Amino acid sequence: MAARTSKDPAEQTPPAAMVRTQEYSAGTGWEIGQTAPEDAYRALDGDGHNTPTGPVVSSHPGGYARLIVAKGAQVTDGVRRELDAAEAEQDGGA
To answer: Which residues contact 74 (CB under 8 A, 6 or more apart)?
Structure first.
């Protein structure tokens, strides 16, 4: 005869594979894996070339602009590259 299991949920323990480990947030910031603390926009040229120009700003600059990352979204490799490129352009152009 087959063994019977208890119907009481308090007596049943989940299998080890079902127990998740503690996960910690990477925090808020501009590093890869972190949560963006605010929106990041960059203006686009008005000539129809869609070339990013100017600094990264936290509110829409008006006209044509690209949203690099929204507040609360995860900062990815692509976002970090775009932020670094904008910073390098500003440092080199100054």
So the answer is: 33, 34, 35, 36
Confidence check: pLDDT of 35 > 90: yes
Residue 91 and residue 83 in contact, taking contact as beta carbons nearer than 8 Å: no
Check if the beta carbon of residue 71 is closer than 8 Å to that of residue 86.
no
- Output the average pLDDT for the chain: 84
According to DSSP, the residues that pair with 42 across neighbouring strands are: 56, 66
